[in-house]
Specification:
228 residues; mainly alpha
Length: 228
């Protein structure tokens, strides 16, 4: 299965840089579902929220195969709702392992900086997509999507500062990769449809899922609640 994933990824790269967008998009949509199947074959009892994340993300990717058989507005809302549910699921998984009292006590400055950074990134992303939004509901979907994505990154960073172990580091690296992937994906869709941008976006998503799957096999280490 790992070999099949790599083969599909290489096929995506070849078609993308040959500007064969149809086959590039088709293979791109198959990568994460294949990774999900591989993960479930290796882990018979995965974390519930991580499983929901993989399933929702995979189904959203696979919707590219039915985009021509439904009104685009349905495809847009259902697809983005699935991606948002995926991010909310991984967010819940992260938050369940964090002590909020410890975070509020020891990381006040980090919280302020993260809040400012999240507002700025969300603002920039919204500025980019605003000219292409035609209905109020689309604004709501985009804002919700971006907020859920940025909360995953912020919570994973706080989780790493809180736990400072390999599992939390891998979770943070995965979240960082997936946010970079999303930002580059927005640039590809709305700014410049260059092959390199889509290649980087897909590659970062695959890297993010690799980090996420690696951390899934690890256990959280105990945290010294009285550490300064």
């Amino acid at each position: 299965m790992v070999g099949l994933v790599l083969l599909v990824y290489l096929g995506f790269v070849v078609f993308q840089f040959n500007s064969n967008i149809y086959w590039a998009d088709a293979l791109d949509a198959l990568i994460l579902p294949l990774v999900t199947i591989t993960f479930f074959k290796a882990d018979r009892k995965p974390n519930l929220f991580f499983a929901i994340f993989l399933i929702c993300y995979s189904v959203a990717d696979l919707m590219v195969f039915i985009v021509d058989s439904m009104p685009y507005i349905y495809y847009y809302f259902i697809g983005n709702a699935l991606y948002t549910m995926a991010y909310i699921a991984i967010l819940i998984k992260i938050l369940k392992s964090v002590s909020f009292s410890h975070i509020l006590k020891h990381f006040k400055l980090h919280l302020i900086v993260l809040l400012g950074l999240n507002i700025y990134i969300a603002y920039v992303l919204q500025i980019i997509v605003n000219p292409y939004m035609e209905m109020t509901n689309e604004y709501v979907i985009e804002i919700t999507y971006n907020i859920s994505m940025l909360l995953v990154l912020s919570s994973s960073l706080l989780n790493y500062l809180y736990r400072d172990d390999r599992k939390s580091l891998l979770m943070f690296l995965g979240s960082l990769s997936i946010v970079f992937s999303e930002v580059i994906g927005v640039a590809y869709l709305y700014v410049a449809q260059q092959n390199l941008l889509n290649f980087l976006s897909t590659s970062l998503t695959l890297l993010a899922i690799y980090f996420y799957c690696k951390q899934a096999s690890l256990l959280n280490e105990e945290v010294n609640q009285f550490a300064s």
